[in-house]
User: Fold DUF1800 domain-containing protein from Pontibacter amylolyticus.
Amino acid sequence: MATSEAQLREKMTLFWHGHFACRLREPRFALLQHNTLRAHALGKFPDLLLAISKDPGMLQFLNNQQNRKQRPNENFARELLELFTLGRGHYTEQDIKEAARAFTGWSYNPQGEFVFRARQHDRGQKTFMGKRGNFGGEDILQMIVENPRTADFLTAKLYAFFVSDVPNPERIKDLSSYFYETGYDIPKLLEKIFRAKWFYGPDVVGTKIKSPIELLAGLQRQFDLTYADGRSPLVLQRALGQELFRPPNVSGWAGGRNWIDSSTLAFRLRIGPALLQEAALEVNLKPDDDTEPTAPRKRRQDGLRTVRAKADLSGLHQQMQEAKERELIEKLSQKLLQVPLQPETAALIQQHIPSGVAHADKVTLLTLRLLSLPEYQLC
Assistant:
């Protein structure tokens, strides 16, 4: 997200990573799943759904390798219906049981390749969502995407991710119908959202709280940040509550106001200024068995980490080179903030800038002040 030219694909990969949330211990499987999500991130949802349903990481995480005829395991079938497609309340317990039978025999080999184990598959008649037949896993997936409720569920989640945490039923209904009509074409749905006039309205712009990953990727991209230690981004993710490849559960990250509490907000406001000034940012992590991103060193308090980074502000200085002194705060706030800077806040910031400082130094000082504002946490 911080370095790629394919920004939308990376953002959608992040979305699907949270939607199909898996916490995998096997690095190879995590990489395979990540590549699958990226490859299908801007394709059609039925193709992505089939690919992720055959993904070894998903099958392992939801125990489908234990799903065999006469001994069905319902974990994958349950999450498929509840969290990945239809949403709670739009299926029955019997649908889960019958879907689980259809996915018996779906497994993988040690190389991370999908394997259909025919001897373990239940070939009996199954009744799923009012239809009866000798269904296999592919049949279940097809019936799921044929149900318009799947489009409703996915569209609502994409709306919350890109637009607002407050749902707008009329907009979502219109978008969902279009998504369904296009055969779940993800790029067409996103284009419809991004071309809508309301997407740029005051009720949308600057109303969402940046996720920790969006915050960190934005800082790294805007200011060409380079971390002194390759593990530092993991430490920051952990401290902020969103560690990639380690979602809290199969539901993924809750998002929205859940990103903010009294401690995380204070830490968020310190991150930008500290990293841009190459200051040592001390981070206290709670020890947490296998999720501890770095092992404690000898004679150091358990959980204490130091993060350092180097920023390059030359690009920003160049962009602001022609800006007059009285325009600086306005131009910088327009570039760095998604919400208008209140006049009283702008005046207060400028009061703390020493008189007589060089133009480039003033740009740097104003930038540090803007990054320490709550407004910088919004997108």
